[in-house]
Amino acid sequence: NATYPVVVREVGFGISEETAKKLLAAGVSGIDVGGAGGTSWIEVEKNRVTSKIFKKVADDFCQWGIPTAESILSVKKAAENIPVKIIASGGIRSGLDVAKAIALGADIAGIGLPALKNIHVSVDKCMEYIREIALGLKIAMFGIGASSIGELKNSKYLKKKKDTF
Question: Fewer Cβ neighbours under 10 Å: the N or C end of the chain?
Fold first, then answer.
């Protein structure tokens, strides 16, 4: 066991219940599900390499993986009696997506590509996007009557197993 918290991050294929159990048994304190639906790192690698064989095989995996919503539920199930932070990432694009992820059981959500695109334009554009995320989250919480993130977490509202982000 490490003397400091260890967080494991998937990069686009999601975390299964079985994998989460192994990670928890190894002592991790956080799991970023990195579910399918966001940036496809196999697609990134496919565009980076020159090997035609790798490109062809990568094509086969571009739509493969566990969706973020399903991965959140899998990690939550694996961690029923184990304190672990669940980070939702992979296709999270709006405040409503953040609300859905938290309602499913995530503690926090991560947003990569849209933030990077906005920061590339300007700091002000990125801050505007962050305010948009915050407002969407607040509206979703108001809409279901949640006055805090704690009330939103594990809410019976906003949950659909087939939800994708």
Answer: N
